[in-house]
Design a protein that fits this description.
The protein has five helices and no strands. By secondary structure, it is mostly helical. Helix 2 runs antiparallel to helix 3 and helix 3 runs antiparallel to helix 4.
Length: 113
């Protein structure tokens, strides 16, 4: 597999983008630290951090609220897994899924048009 020009990871853009999601916000942070050139990979890294850190914070905050909190947590878990699978699948296929709010933020951070 030939790496894209400008990538500092040495990986194909689709593979590096998908790997940004593989461990949620942790892998997103790793790719933000490693990838300096490929804006598409940086987009996926920012989107991964924003999305999965957001899910994590909401889940932890919901755990503090009695009665309603566990219900919210039970809803967040399957939604986050579905979002994770869709983002992985579409990214490895070469499609860019821009999530509402987080995707716009990720695009601006990665300086995508």
């Amino acid at each position: 597999m030939q790496p894209d020009s400008g990538s500092t990871t040495g990986l194909d853009t689709n593979v590096a983008g998908a790997l940004c999601y593989i461990l949620g916000f942790v892998s997103g942070i790793v790719f933000l630290l490693v990838e300096k050139e490929d804006r598409e990979v940086r987009f996926h890294a920012y989107q991964s951090v924003g999305t999965f850190l957001g899910f994590f914070v909401i889940s932890v905050a919901a755990g503090i609220v009695p009665i309603l909190g566990p219900l919210v947590s039970m809803l967040i878990a399957p939604v986050s897994v579905i979002v994770w699978i869709v983002l992985l699948w579409k990214t490895i296929q070469g499609d860019r899924v821009e999530l509402p709010v987080v995707g716009e933020w990720a695009s601006s951070q990665a300086r995508l048009p």
